[in-house]
Design brief:
By secondary structure, this protein is mainly alpha-helical. The chain contains 14 helices and four strands. It is elongated.
């Protein structure tokens, strides 16, 4: 039996690789992964900030600009030496904002710290406010905060405590002894596992979700192939009662190929996590997709209806599943879509069990709908 199944798997795969549409579907993945890898290597960010340092001798301003440009993050930085040029770049849309460091930044921070109030020390030029620019100002504040914090500490010790004779070196040593080293937060996922740092840019982040939607489209394409074969009489010698297992077998071959391609694409694109979790999640996702697509095939009845539904389904999965954003609400609809379970199962083992239950329920529905259609056909005949 195992040998017979292996032979059938080989023959089904051989038929698939003779279909130009199937080869086109597979070629979409390397093109997508290659394009995203090229984009990830380019300079990119959710906002472009012009850093204008008008006084090159300002040590604190130069250090702040260097810290911003050296750190890899979600912002893209450009350098500029003239305030007029920086303002013009924002006005012409070449940049989203300009941060202009004018005057003595260290002195401005010390003056603000001595008066115990937060005062503007950097000119920020923006055309319009947005969420990304709000985030950028938080990043700027985080870079300037250590100098401001030390200024508040120094003013408190010298003025409020009256220790004006203490040397700068002693004051700095006492301040640095109280600093907290390392991160204040420890990341963990809902299943109790420790967070593994994922070294990929925000450009690569939606790739897994896009590939998950692609695998569902592979399942729908497999169902369309099966429906076309039925119409052409390829399965005429297969008894009607065995058409559902035959459909699962034929579609499962294409989905198994797609699952392997998905795993390889995640690995090559740099979004791969632990291989045990990846393989288990992908295998369960392929099974859930197989049952889901066959249920749609039985409900749609014709290739034309199934093809029309594929467009609507793709748009729905891109919006409702956590591909780009994890939207709140619509939970009842999300639970009907296989990619929703898969994308969350990578870091939450609860959704692995959810995929098992989902696959079992949808498979039972397939059997019930298939039996109801067969009985209806017998009664009509």
């Amino acid at each position: 039996m195992i040998r017979r199944m292996a032979v059938r798997y080989y023959l089904y795969n051989k038929r698939l690789f003779k279909k130009y549409s199937f080869l086109l579907i597979l070629c979409m993945v390397p093109l997508l992964v290659g394009g995203i890898r090229l984009l990830a290597k380019e300079e990119s960010g959710i906002a472009t900030i012009v850093l204008c340092l008008t006084d090159g001798e300002d040590e604190l301003a130069a250090r702040a600009v260097g810290e911003l440009t050296e750190e890899e993050g979600v912002l893209r930085y450009l350098r500029c030496d003239k305030e007029e040029v920086a303002r013009q770049m924002v006005a012409e849309g070449e940049a989203d904002a300009a941060w202009i460091f004018t005057g003595d930044l260290s002195g401005s921070l010390k003056e603000a710290a001595a008066k115990k109030r937060v005062r503007p020390v950097v000119q920020v030029v923006e055309r319009k406010d947005s969420v990304s620019l709000i985030l950028s100002r938080e990043i700027l504040g985080a870079v300037l905060y250590p100098a401001f914090s030390y200024g508040v500490y120094e003013a408190y010790v010298r003025e409020d405590l009256g220790l004006r004779d203490i040397s700068e070196e002693e004051l700095r040593q006492a301040y640095e002894r109280t600093l907290v080293e390392g991160s204040l937060f420890q990341l963990a996922y809902l299943d109790g596992g420790q967070a593994v740092e994922e070294d990929f840019s925000y450009v690569q982040a939606p790739l897994r979700g896009i590939l998950a939607v692609w695998l569902v489209l592979c399942g729908l394409a497999a169902c369309l192939y099966f429906m076309q074969d039925e119409e052409q009489g390829v399965f005429s010698r297969t008894p009607a009662a065995r058409r559902l297992p035959a459909a699962f077998g034929v579609c499962g071959v294409l989905l198994s190929d797609g699952a392997v391609v998905l795993l390889l694409a995640c690995k090559l694109a740099g979004v791969f996590t632990l291989w045990q979790r990846e393989v288990i999640s992908c295998a369960l996702f392929a099974c859930a997709t197989l049952a889901f697509c066959n249920l749609l095939r039985l409900l749609c009845k014709t290739p034309e209806r199934l093809g029309s539904l594929a467009l609507i389904l793709t748009a729905g999965m891109l919006v409702l599943c956590p591909v780009f954003l994890n939207l709140q609400g619509f939970r009842a609809v999300k639970y009907l879509l296989p990619p929703y379970y898969y994308l969350l199962s990578i870091h939450n083992v609860r959704y692995l069990y959810g995929m098992v239950i989902y696959t079992a329920i949808v498979s039972v529905l397939c059997v019930l709908v298939f039996g109801w259609r067969n009985r209806s056909r017998i009664y009509r005949n």
